[in-house]
Amino acid sequence: MLSVQNVDLSYGAAQALRLVSLGAAVGRVTCLLGRNGVGKTSLLRAICGLQPIAAGSIVLDGHDVSRLPPYERARRGVALVPQGREIFPLLTVKENLETGFAPLGRDQKKIPDEVFELFPVLASMLRRRGGDLSGGQQQQLAIGRALTMRPKLLVLDEPTEGIQPSVIKDIGRAITFLRQRRDMAILLVEQYLDFAHELADDFAVMDRGEIVMKGTREAFDIDTVRRHMTV
Q: Which entry of 20, 65, 110, 191 is 20 to 30 Å from 37 by CA?
């Protein structure tokens, strides 16, 4: 579904990504790991079209989207759950979910039942403002908003950050369910190693703007990955 090849990205004179290559396949969870400031979020911004790349290519479902704006990538099935959630605090839960309608055709503008099956708390809070929800509930809302877009590629940027353990388990179960449906690729950025180890089918570790380690689940030795992340 996703193929990133030899991508460079800079902010002015500072190079954030160097020859980064990464893939994400349908029915699999690809975990991107690394310390703060090594380029993980920059890579996600490049994939979603929020930051232009200087070199390389980003291919989605066989089509080169490297130069397409973010809204065109959303129309092609890219949905981002950003770090910090970025829900609309003054909109209701229902209105926040409905913002996911933006890239959809008229006949698709309905909140999928699976959003409430995965996160039942949202169904009971549809009239509440997003800003009144707890951090964990806002994270579930952000994921629900992305699922409303019917994504082909679901990108999650540190969904466990600052979240209580019970909600982390709910998010893990949701990701497992979505993987088993086998109709989307999932790219998960994480620093919580146990969570990533449990979910990853494929993984990559970044350091200083480069991929320094990658492999399948069988090669994911949590102690080796931890050493890469603490150097």
A: 65
Q: How far apart are the first and last CA of the chain?
A: 32
- CA-to-CA distance for 228 and 231, rounded, in angstroms? 6
Do residues 173 and 202 lie in contact, with contact meaning Cβ atoms separated by under 8 Å? no
Q: Which of 203, 206, 211 is nearest to 19 (CA)?
A: 211
The DSSP code for 215 is E
Residue tagged 């929020």 (tokens): 50
The tens-digit pLDDT sequence of the chain (231 residues) is 899 999 999 999 999 999 999 999 999 999 999 998 999 999 999 999 999 999 999 999 999 999 999 999 999 999 999 998 999 999 999 999 999 999 999 899 999 999 999 999 999 999 999 999 999 999 999 999 999 999 999 999 999 998 999 999 999 999 999 999 999 999 999 989 999 999 999 999 999 999 999 999 998 888 888 888 886
Domains, in order of start, for the chain: 2-84+152-230 (3.40.50.300)
Burial class (CB in 10 A: 0-12, 13-18, 19+), 1: buried
Instruction: Name the burial class of residue 196, with classes exposed (0-12), middle (13-18) and buried (19+) by CB atoms within 10 angstroms of its CB.
Output: buried
